[in-house]
Each structure stands twice: as C-alpha cells, then as structure tokens.
Recover the amino acids of this structure.
C-alpha cells in the first residue's frame, strides 16, 4: 500500500470535492444522528474563513484513492503558539496507516509555523448512550496527546419540552431579574450592541471551564465580530440571538445564540451563553436561553432537535440545560498534544 499526502487550498476544486466526500462519509458513519455534512459550510471554510485564522489543508491518498484529510487552524491574532486540528479518514479505508501519515505530516507543518501545541476533539460513548467508535480516543492517546477537557453533548427533543414547567421556571426567575429586559435579533448584531457582544464573546474563554487546555482568552473587538458574522453568513447559518439589557447602564450583560445550518431545517445548535460576572445571580442565563428558545421556534417551526456542548464540569450551565430538557447523548474529549 502506498500513501501519498499533498497540501491543497480552495483553488484546487478537485481536492476540495474529495475532502468533502471523505468528511461526509465519516459524519454519516460516526455521528448518524447529526445532520448531513453541509457542503455550503465546507466550501466557506476555504473562501471565507473566520477572521484571524490561517487554515492549512492536506489530502491523503491510499494507492491513489482519496482516503483522508487534515485541517489545521492556526490562530493569528492570539494563541499564536496553538493550533486546532481535524483529521478524518474515510470509514472504508481506516486502520491502514492513513491517519498516522496525516498526523506526522501535520506535525511537520505545525513545527514549520512555530506552533507548540495542538488540540483536537474525539467523540466517545456514554454508559447509557448510543454506541460510538473508540478509535478517535485510541488514536489520540497513541500520538502522545493528553485528555485536557471533557465535554458532553446534550440534545433537546422539541416535542418533549415541558412547556408548563418552563413557564413556571420563568415566572419564578423574573422577579430576580428586575432592572433587566430582553432584546432579540436575527443574523448580524445591531450596531448599538456590537461592542457589548464583543466584550461578552471575549470573556468566554475566561469564564468557561477549560480543564487543562492551554488556550488564552481571545482578543475580540467589533471588527472581529463583524468578520465572524461574514464567515457565518457564508456558511449559511441562520442565527437567533437574545441579549439581556441592564436598564441602568444600557448595556447588554448577557447573551445567548441558537443557530441552524444551511442543509436541514430540523436541527439547531445552542451555541454561546454567557453572563457578565458582575450581573450574575439574577437568573439571566435561564431567562435568556428560555426566551431565545421561544424566539427560535417561533421562526423555525420545523426544528425537532437542538444540540449543545458543555464542559462536564460546568455545573451551572448544565443545570440550566437540564431544566430546559436537554439530555446527554455522548462525550467529547479535547485532546492536547505538546510538540
């Protein structure tokens, strides 16, 4: 067997097509409850990347047949010692050395770019959850990477939401939130709130549990928020935001986001939820998430399930998600390799 690896970029449409087909097959095999691998999202990774990110791509062929790809994202504005990786091998061509060859190729690229560590995720099964392959964790461990953070994916079945219990929880929370009111929007952030959103977004990696992942807070400003929005627009992601506005200061002090991809209308992700530490204790997180859930479902009535990821140690956010009806599906480990 002969394994060859070549770097490629968005101008090489044949390689992009081959990588997409590999990713699609891997998604269907490894995460059968996920939406199909989105072609619009994948293409946008090449032509409209997230601001401040340099992406390096490599395609592996086994005896001339496209067999796997590697994506390395190298932050340029902060975390310049770090990188993240996604490595996919076609399900029919695994256990033939393709992953190891891509890994070794990636290490050379990372060292050429002066990176000191790389982080990648692998999924595994929970004791009572659906089966998941053990190959990702086994491969990461074999490379010498260390498990740095455990996350759990939870899923909300919209048809099973206990709406009476949710209304009761909101009614109980509202008196604690006197002096705050909610504002919602779709897509890009209104100009009057963009500085507040940049501040909250920049706090995320300070406030969220990071385990042993060595990742510094990102430097987020209004320009970076607008760049993120352009990248998400290019991916076709429909976004539903809700912020909690502090009436005395006029600032948004909490923010949550739900979004859908371009491929299907039945699936959404609960993305960021963050409350400014100076305004915690007012049940703003619960109110924001519950009201934004209503915001989403009003405009996207076809949504049947919503997935969210939380660090297993993030007890506060996990408790809110459980109250909303999210239930564990599988476990995800952030593996960190020091070069």
């Amino acid at each position: 067997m002969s394994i060859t690896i070549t770097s490629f970029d968005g101008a090489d449409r044949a390689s992009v097509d081959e990588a997409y087909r590999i990713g699609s097959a891997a998604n269907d095999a490894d995460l059968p409850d996920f939406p199909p691998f989105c072609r619009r999202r994948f293409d946008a990774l090449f032509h409209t990347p997230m601001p401040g990110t340099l992406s390096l791509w490599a395609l592996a062929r086994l005896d001339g047949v496209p067999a796997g790809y590697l994506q390395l994202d190298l932050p340029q504005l902060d975390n310049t010692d770090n990188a993240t990786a996604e490595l996919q091998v076609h399900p029919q061509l695994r256990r033939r050395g393709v992953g190891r060859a891509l890994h070794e190729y990636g290490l050379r690229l990372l060292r050429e770019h002066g990176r000191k560590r790389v982080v990648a995720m692998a999924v595994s099964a929970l004791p009572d959850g659906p089966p998941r392959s053990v190959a990702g964790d086994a491969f990461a461990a074999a490379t010498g990477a260390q498990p740095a953070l455990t996350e759990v994916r939870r899923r909300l079945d919209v048809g099973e939401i206990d709406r009476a219990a949710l209304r009761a929880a909101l009614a109980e929370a509202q008196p604690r939130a006197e002096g705050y009111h909610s504002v919602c929007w779709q897509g890009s952030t209104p100009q009057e709130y963009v500085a507040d959103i940049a501040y909250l977004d920049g706090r995320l990696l300070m406030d969220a549990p990071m385990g042993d992942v060595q990742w510094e807070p990102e430097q987020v400003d209004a320009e970076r928020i607008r760049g993120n929005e352009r990248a998400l627009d290019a991916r076709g992601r429909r976004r539903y935001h809700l912020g909690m506005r502090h009436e005395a200061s006029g600032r948004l002090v909490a923010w949550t986001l739900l979004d859908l991809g371009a491929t299907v209308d039945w699936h959404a992700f609960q993305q960021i939820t963050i409350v400014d530490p100076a305004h915690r204790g007012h049940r703003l997180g619960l109110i924001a998430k519950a009201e934004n859930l209503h915001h989403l479902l009003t405009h996207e009535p076809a949504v049947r399930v919503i997935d969210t990821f939380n660090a297993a140690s993030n007890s506060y956010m996990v408790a809110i998600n459980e109250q909303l009806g999210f239930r564990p599906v599988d476990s995800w480990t952030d593996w960190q390799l020091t070069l």
Summary: The first strand starts at residue 3 and ends at 8. The longest helix spans residues 13-30. The chain has a mean pLDDT of 97. The chain is about 35% helix and 30% strand.
